[in-house]
Design a protein that fits this description.
The chain contains six helices and 13 strands. With 266 residues, the protein is an alpha/beta fold. It starts with a strand and ends in a 7-residue tail after the last helix. It has a single domain, classed as UDP-N-acetylmuramoyl-L-alanine:D-glutamate ligase.
Length: 266
């Protein structure tokens, strides 16, 4: 069984379904679809667990009821949660899911992420076949690098000015201009750049080059929330197990396609 860790942030998310976002000054009815812990790291950890990996989660939550609920949700999914408690409240998020299958996100509060000097069992990362990293400081990233394989989202560049470790794969959307810009800052540290292209598949460059075709969705298209991190989780799993970017991309594409068929993630 593959052992994969996720290092990153936790958000408590209300998913609201509505026909379209209101124009300025309008009132628009919405329906609450679900309320649960989510965010890129939680999505990835959940997908990895469903793939059959032994998953460990390293993060930070508030010292509040939402933090308790987030940890309980992770553990209920079979994920070992290593979370430090912060005095700040757990971050809350409102995610709007519209009839165009797109998501729009409003955040409430500070994004809480683990730090390298937090009293977490960082030594366990040395035993991991892979780590997917979404948020944390330089110390947390250095701990993550102790694993055999390290993959990340380029969004880490939003918080980390100087990244000084080698990344095995930098995984991002070619349609996301912010991610493309951040990836440019991190490219020299990445052995592979893995670029998704929505319904057109994607490609990877770097130590090797190739592309993959899109995978057919296993059901109707509901919304796009979590599809990118689901792909990243699948790619990390496939690369850790098979060591082959093509096989990793196939697994990632299947996970991403599956996420499109569920409201609010995988």
């Amino acid at each position: 069984m593959a052992r994969i860790a996720v290092v990153g942030h936790v958000e408590w998310v209300q998913f609201l379904s509505l026909a379209k976002l209101p124009a300025h000054g309008q009132i628009t009815p919405a329906e609450r679809v679900r309320v649960n812990a989510a965010g890129g790291a939680v999505v990835a950890a959940t997908v990895l667990a469903r793939l059959g990996a032994e998953v460990e989660f390293f993060g930070a939550v508030g010292a509040d009821d939402l933090g308790d609920q987030a940890i309980a949700q992770l553990e209920l999914a079979g994920i070992s949660a290593h979370c430090v408690r912060r005095p700040s409240p757990s971050r809350e998020v409102i995610t709007f899911l519209d009839n165009d299958h797109e998501r729009s996100i409003v955040t409430l509060g500070e994004r809480l992420a683990p730090a390298g000097d937090d009293e977490l069992d960082w030594a366990r990362l040395e035993e991991m076949d892979g780590v997917y990293f979404t948020a944390g400081d330089q110390g947390a990233l250095a701990h993550a690098r102790r694993a055999r394989l390290l993959t990340t989202t380029p969004r880490i560049a939003e918080q980390l000015i100087n990244v000084d470790v080698e990344l095995d794969a930098l995984i991002y959307s070619g349609d996301d201009h912010a991610e493309v810009d951040w990836a440019g800052q991190l490219a020299s540290h990445a052995r592979l750049q893995v670029i998704t292209d929505g319904g057109h598949g994607g490609r990877w460059t770097g130590a090797s080059r190739g592309s993959w075709e899109p995978v057919e969705r296993p059901g109707p298209f509901i919304d796009s929330y979590g599809a990118g991190d689901s792909f990243a989780a699948g790619f990390t799993y496939g690369l850790a197990v098979a060591g082959d970017p093509r096989e990793a991309a196939r697994t990632g594409a299947e996970c991403g396609a599956r996420a499109l068929t569920h409201a609010g993630g995988p």
